[in-house]
Amino acid sequence: MGCNNERLPGVKENARALNVESAFRRVGFVLLLSIIVAALMGLFSGGYMSSATTMNPTHSLKVEYERFGRLQNEFRVKISPQSLAADNYVFSIGGAFSERFQPGSVWPQPDRMFSQGQTLYLVYHNIADKRDFSVRVYVTPSMPGRAVNMVKVNDEPEARFWQFIFP
Asked: For the chain, how many helices (H) and strands (E)?
């Protein structure tokens, strides 16, 4: 009676099938754990691996953005001129931006906003008295895949950055 090797009537065990099932459970557990860790680190949206910053070659423009995002989920792009002495700022956002992203709110509101070709322009006047001026553009991805975007301020060199949007 207390023997572990007793077999139940009508049950035929296959040792190979049980070993395969056990291996799949271990692999599945590791895969699930890997996905959870990647999500917590920001591989699929905001987080440590996703938050990124880039600057243009002259370090006159800084762009903070999410490297990874999800389709139809809004995120923020923060554009900050660095030590530029100008009364007016003209920000231009281009590259794949106009075809892959839908712009939402812009803060602070620009004095003028228009698009020309594949580039969106944000114009701000009388900025000389404002310290640490930054523009926040909230965008919603409209297409999945990798997108290379470009941001410029006035006649400074452009800052390029890439983003990957998951479906």
From this structure: 2, 11
Q: Tell me if 72 sits within 8 A of 141, measured CB to CB.
A: yes
CA distances from 29 to 25, 38, 49 (A): 6, 14, 22
Q: Is 145 left (phi over 0), alpha (psi -120 to 50) or beta?
A: left
How far, CA to CA in Å, does 47 sit from each of 52, 69, 81? 9, 10, 24
Nearest partner of 150 among 139, 159, 138, 162, judged by Cα = 159
State which amino acid sits at residue 15.
A
Length of the chain: 167
pLDDT tens-place string over residues 49-97: 788 999 999 999 999 999 988 899 999 999 999 877 788 999 999 999 9
Residues near 86 by beta carbon (within 8 Å), at least 6 away in sequence = 127, 128, 154
Rounded to whole angstroms, the Cα distance separating 137 from 79 reads: 8
Nearest to 74, CA basis, from 105, 98, 120 = 105
Q: Cβ contacts of residue 109 below 8 Å, gap of 6+? A: none
